[in-house]
Amino acid sequence: MEQVVVPDDFPSILSGTGALKRLQRLAQVTVYKEKALSQDELIQRLQGAKVVINIRAYSKFDATALRGCPDLKMIAVLGVGTDNIDLAAASQLGIKVTNTPGYSAVAVAEHTLALMLGAARRVTEHENELRAGRWIRLPMTQLHGKTLGIIGFGDIGRQVASLARGIGMRVWAWTLHPSSHRAKESGVQFVELDQLLSQSDVISINIRASERTRGLISRQALEKIKPSCILVNTARASIVDTQAMIDALRTGRLAAAGLDVFDQEPLPANDPILSLPNAVLSPHNSGMTPEAMEKGNEMVVENVIAFLQGRLINLVND
Fold first, then answer.
1. Handedness of CA 23, 21, 7, 60 (dihedral sign)
2. Same fold: 3-103+289-308 with 105-281
3. How far apart are CA 206 and CA 115, in angstroms?
4. What CATH number does the domain located at 3-103+289-308 have?
5. According to the model, what pLDDT value does residue 269 have?
6. What proportions of the chain, in percent to the nearest 5, are helix, strand and coil?
7. Which is the catalytic residue, given 56, 111, 236, 302?
8. Has domain 105-281 been given CATH number 3.40.50.720?
9. Which of 96, 125, 259, 276 is packed most tightly, with the most Cβ within 10 A?
10. Catalytic residue check, 265
11. pTM of the full structure
12. What does the domain layout of the chain look like in residue ranges?
C-alpha cells in the first residue's frame, strides 16, 4: 500500500473521520496530531511518503523541504491557499499539488459578514464596556445602503456578495480576472482598485495569497480609503501591510477592522493588534464549521484517491 502522511492535523479536523477511514482502506496513512517543532522535524515526518495531506498553512513546503522528500509525488492541500508551498519547485520535482476549492465558501462568507457587522456595530467595544460595569452607547454604522468593495471574486467573494446584497448593500468587486458574465450573474459591479479603495464603506479581502497579492493593501492603498471605512480580512495577513493597518486604526485613518488572519499565528499575547479597541478579532477559524470541515475532508481524500488511481482533480500546478 502507498504511504500517505498527514504531518499537521493540529488542531485536529481529519483524525477519526469517515473520510480518513475511507482513505485508510486504500493506503497506509500516518497522522501526526502535534505541530512539528522545526522544519527538520517536518521533513522527517514526510520520509517515505508518496502523498502528503497538508492541513495547516504553518507547514512550509519550501524547495529545501521538497528536495528532502525524494519519494513525494503529491501534496493534497485541505484548503484553497497554497502560499505555504513552493509551487515552482514542486513542478520542477514532479510533485503534483491539489487543493479543495469552495469547500468552506459559505462558512467563510458568513464569518466575513459577522466580522463586518461586529465592527460596524462595535460589538466588542460595547461588550467590554458592559463587562466593566459601564452603560455606554457608542455611535454605530448601519450597513444597509452602504457600499461593500470585495477584493477577489472567487467562491468566497461571490458568497460574500450574496449575503451583503441580502442586507441591502451595494456591492463592488475588483479581481485579477474580471468577467462581465460573472458580474451580470451576481449583480455585482466590477471596478478599478483605486475606485474600490477610495469609495467603499466596507472593504472585504477575499483574494488568494500569492506573490501578486502580497502587500496589495499597502500603506499607500490605506491612505486612499475613507476614514469611516471598515476593513475585513478573512483571506491571508500577507495581503495587508499590518503595521500600516495598525497605524491607521490607531490614528482614526481607518474606522475599524474585522480580522481572522494574522502575520503570526497563534497571535502572541503582546501583539499590538490586541490593544486596538476598534478591531474585532477571531483565531483564523472562519471556515471551521462542521459542514465545511466535513466537505473539506471529503474533497481532500477524494483528491488523494483520484491520484492513487492515476487521475488528477483540483490540480493547481503544472
1. positive
2. yes
3. 13
4. 3.40.50.720
5. 96
6. 35, 15, 45
7. 236
8. yes
9. 259
10. yes
11. 0.90
12. 3-103+289-308, 105-281
